[in-house]
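Human:
I keep going back and forth on a fold encoding question. Comparing notes only helps if you start from a blank page. Show me how you would write down a chain together with its backbone fold. Write it directly below this note and I will take it from there.

Assistant:
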Amino acid sequence: MKLLKELVEVRGAASDEGKIKKFIFDYVSDNKASWITEPQIIEGKGFQDCIILVFGEPRTAIYAHMDSIGYSVGYDKELIKIGGPRMIDGMQLVGSDTQGEILTELMVIEEENGQSTCQYVFDREIERGTILTFKPDFRETEEYVQSPYMDNRLGVWNALRVAETLENGAIVFGTYEEHGGNSVGYCAKYLLDKYDVYQALISDITWVTSGVVHGGGVAISTRDKGLPRKSYLDKIIQLAKDSGVPFQLEVESAGGSDGGVLQHSDMPIDWCFIGAPEDNVHSPDEKVFFKDIYAMVELYKYLMKHL
C-alpha cells in the first residue's frame, strides 16, 4: 500500500490537479520500462492536467479521476464546498497560501433556519480562494485500509496496477470529476478519433449500501443516475463470471461518475462503473476492504484482456 499512501498525501482538489498530475506522470515515467508494454504518454497542451496512456492497440479505456473533494476559502473565514465533502466539526484541513503552510480545523455553524455552514479556525486570516483538503491520515489493518480520498486515489492506484501487465488498452487520468465533470469528453474524443476506442470502464470507488457490502468483491454498477447500455453491461457481467473474481452487482437511483459525462456526450461510447465499495463516504475516514481492492485489480486485468 506504499503507492496508495503516497497518492493520498498529494493535494489535488478539483480544479487544482497539477501536483497529482505531476506525481502520476513521474511515477509512470520511472516505471513504464518495467511494464509488459511501454505506453505512449499523451499530455500537455490541449489536455489541461490530464494524462492519457496508450498501450499497443487499444479497444477499451480505463477512466480514473485524479481530483478530490475539498473546500475553498471565502469571505469572513467561510469555507465553500468543492464537490460534496462531509462537514464534521473539528476535522483537520491542510493547504497553503502565499504566507505559508496551513493546518486548520473546520467549525460547523448551525444557522437559525436549520441550515449548517462552516468556517475555518486558524491563528491568521487565510487568503481568499485558498483550497483546503482533508489532512492525510492513512491507516491499515489486516482487513482494510482507511484514509481520506480512497475516492478516488484508490481508483488511480488500481489503474496503475493494471498498467503493469496491460498489453492493449488506454488509461485516462482525468480531472474535475468531483465538481461537475470536465476532461472525460475531450479525452474520449481523442481516443475515439485516433484509436477507435468505443468502450470504457470507470475506475472509481462506490458506496457500501444495503445491497453492496464490504468483503463481497468488487461492485459492478448496473446503474446509478446514469444507465449503461444493457448489451455492454451483460457482456461485462458474463466476463466477470468467467473470470472467477468475486463481484457483486450494484443498482442505485442516484450518484454519478465520469460515465455520466460519457453518456451525456454525443459520442457512441459504452461505459460501465466498476469499483470497490467504501464506507464513510466523502469523509476523512473512508474505509475499503483489501478483499474488494484485490478483486477490483484482478477483474480489470481480465476485462481489459477480453473486452
The chain has two domains: 2-68+139-306, 70-134. Residues 70-134 form a domain with the Elongation Factor Tu (Ef-tu); domain 3 fold (CATH 2.40.30.40). The radius of gyration is 19 Å. Residues 191 and 197 are 6 Å apart (CA to CA).
